[in-house]
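Morning F.,

Quick status update on the modeling queue. The single chain you submitted on Monday has been processed. Sequence for confirmation:
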Amino acid sequence: MKPQDTPRFKKEQWKFIIYSMIAYMFFYITRKNLSMAQPLMIEEGVITKQALGVIITVQGVLYGLSRFVNGFWADRLNGRIFMTIGLALSAIMNLMFGCSSVTILFAAFWIINGWTQGMGFPPCAKMLTHWIHPKELATKMSIWNTSHSFGSVLALGICTLLVAEKFNRRWCFYVPAALAGLAAVFCFFFVKDGPHEAGLEEMDLSDMRGETEKRQEVHEVTDADRRRLVFTNRVIWLCALANFSVYVVRFGFLDWGPTFLKEYKGISVEKGGLMIIAFELAAVVGTIFAGWVTDKFFAGRGVRTCVICMLMAGLCALGFWWLPKSAPVWQGTFLLMGTGFFIYGPQALIGITAAQQATTYAAAMANGFMGTMGYAATTVSGYGVAIISEKFGWNSALFTIGAFALVGMVLFLFAWNANATGYSKK
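C-alpha cells below.
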C-alpha cells in the first residue's frame, strides 16, 4: 500500500486541508476589509477615490511581486513558519493602518501589507502538492480554495456589522488585526509543512513520473530546473495571462462593490456589504463545483472548465451592467451571485493548473508567477476603475470589468488541448 493510501495519511491530509484553510482565511480578513471601509473614508474626507485607486493598484502589484519572490523562497523553506510570519506581519500592518489618518500613512501601511500578504499562498501551494496526489488535486484544492471566499465573507461580515453598529472605520482594521494575530499562533502550532512533520512518509508519485524523475530526489532539483518547469511551459504562460482577466473581474466587484452599489445604485453601505457577501458565498459553491467538474469530466484539465466559467462569468457581469438602475435589488444580487459562482472557478483552477504543470518541485514558484500576473490586474481593477468611474461613470467601469471575462475565455481556449500535468510520461 502506498503511503497516501493509508487511513492515517488520509486523516492527516484532511487535518492539513482544514487547518491551512483556517489560517489562510485570516490573510483575506486583513486584506478585504478595506472595501467596506472605503465608502466611510471617502465620506469622512480623509482620502479621495483616486488616491484609494492608486493605493489598491500599488498594493496589488506589490502583492503579486511578493507572491512571485516568496514563491521562490517557499519552495526552499518551511511553509508553516513562512506562513506564520506573513500572517503576523499582516496583523501589525492592519493595526497601524487603523491608527492612521493621513493618505501617506494609509498608503505606506497598506502597500507593506501587500508584501506580507504575499507570504500566504505560495507556501500553501507548495504544502498542498506534498499532501495531495495530482489525481485528486483539482477536487481537494478547490475545496481548500474556498478559504478565499470564506475569508472575504468573514471580513465583509465583520465590517458590515461594525458599520451597522456605528463603529468608526478604524474598527474595520483593529478587529481583523486581533483575529489575524491569533490565527498566526494557530498556524504555527497546527499546520504541518508536509507528511514528514506529521511523522508520515512522503507520497509515492511513481505512477506520475518517468524513470529519470523517479530516481531524482527533491533536494537534487536545481534552480535552473525550477525555472525551466515554470517559464518554458506554454500552458503556464497562457494561464498567467488569463489570470490578469480573472482578477480584473474578481477584484472589480470585490474591491469596489460597496462603493459602486452606493454611488451607482443608491444602496446603503450595509446592504451593499450583504450583496457582496452573497457574491462570495456563491463563489464557495462555484469553486467546489469547478474542481469536481474538472476531475469528473475533463480528467484534470482545468483550462477546459475555465473556458466555460469565463464565458458564463462574462455574461453575468455584463447582465449586471445592462440591468437598469430601477431594477429590483434581488435581480442585481442574482447576477452578482452568478458572477461570483463562475469567476472563482478559474481563480482556483489556475493555481491548481500551475501546481500540476510545475510539479511538486516548483509549485510555489509557478503560483507566485500566477499571482504576479493576477495582481498586475489591479492596474485596471484599482486605479483604472477609479479613473473610468470618475470620468465616464460607473456604467462604463462595469462594462470594462465584464468585457475582461470574455478576453480571459479566449486565452484559456488556446490551452484547451494541453496535458493535465507536467509530470513526465513513461
